[in-house]
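**Tokenised fold:**
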Amino acid sequence: MLKRLLALGLALAVPAGARAAESAAAPPPPGLSALDDSLALESAAALRRGAARLAALQAADGAWAGQPAVTALALVALLNLPPAVPPADPAVVARGLDWLRHRLLAPAGDIRLEEAAAGALGLARANRPEDRAALLAVRARLLAAQVTGEGADAGGFASAPGRPADPAVTAAVLETLLLTGSLDPVPEHPADLAFLAARRYLHRYQAAGGAATAQLVLGLMYARTAAADPALLEALAALPAALEESRPPAAGQYAALLATVKACGVWERSVPGGTARLPADWRATVARLLLERQDADGAWRGSPGAGEDRPELATALALAALELAAR
């Protein structure tokens, strides 16, 4: 599921007059300093509408679309709302987290590896003591799933046993391992060798002609690759083109857009001088794109062929991308 989320959505536009009316009624919001005042106001209004719609799309059992990855994306989007937007209803968040915890504690065969990795991110973002056991279980499963041996796939992660390693799945797993690293006993960190092996896998993949995508940049960064590493610099050079290509056309590309926004943000925040390697207006470009594609009810919607036809998924992806662009 998550692999598909990383490369996919169509949204309908909010009438420009409705956005302008909301924008004119309030001063520039705090917490959206990456955008100019007018765009910050429009983005805050879009985030407010989107968050309200996403909360309303939650099922009675606490899940979104009945899937761990979508539920985790929705929870992260709701938990990451900036100060300019009212926080999500704690009851909505708690129901989602409880469903996610129980789902992740199910037998490993009942949930795909990338779904488990994505689901753990929702629990890790909330950082509740009661979720620790589920996070430890997922973390152990992820470490055990790394491809071993001497082949080209060694060090990578695959969506299922027996399948080839995949850089998008590898990036997703590495992100979860990185963000749950505090669960490791100190000073020993069993994930250190996993990061090293994954980095070698991604280097081999790239050297063999693998596509320099946003997921590759994320994987290399999550694997603790040095900022001056030639492979990372080569992959980074593709980000401006990836940002352009992931603009949602008629078929939509919200997951690809989110992956690219994350890659740009990670690079920008983590690497001295990283900002100079990206288009100066990339954040504003992303914000305007998402504002144009939001539907009047606050949701974003994608096409069936891209896998983002359900508003739960497209809205969670778009909200997350807009939040990151506005930071």
Remarks:
- DSSP finds 15 helices and no strands in the chain.
- The domain at 2-25+32-184+191-325 is CATH 1.50.10.20 (Glycosyltransferase).
- Residues 1-30 have pLDDT under 50 and may be disordered.
